[in-house]
Design a protein that fits this description.
single chain; mainly alpha; 67% helix
């Protein structure tokens, strides 16, 4: 059962993730717009791929929040430390499981 502090932390992380989702969506829209920019096409493809990956990670984290599984390691089921989630809000694994 979550405490009011946990609920506030989750709400703050949800807000952060939602803002980041909106920023990444705008970035992807800008990157995929045909601007006639002659910049290196390989760089643009890499930026688009990275932005899409970021959007997937954010969407997955928001889904876990909605399902009530956010902050639980998907491999071992232990809680992911708050500090890790603050640094990497879309973390799916605790540090030991991530290392494996």
């Amino acid at each position: 059962m979550s405490t009011p502090t946990d609920s506030g932390r989750i709400d703050a992380l949800r807000t952060t993730l939602t803002s980041e989702f909106e920023a990444q969506t705008a970035r992807l829209t800008q990157l995929t717009a045909d601007t006639g920019d002659p910049s290196d096409p390989h760089t643009q493809v890499a930026l688009i791929a990275t932005t899409r990956q970021s959007l997937e990670q954010i969407t997955d984290a928001l889904r876990r929040i909605a399902e009530g599984t956010y902050g639980t390691c998907e491999r071992c089921g232990n809680a992911i430390p708050t500090e890790r989630l603050e640094i990497l809000p879309h973390a799916r694994f605790c540090v030991p499981c991530q290392r494996r």
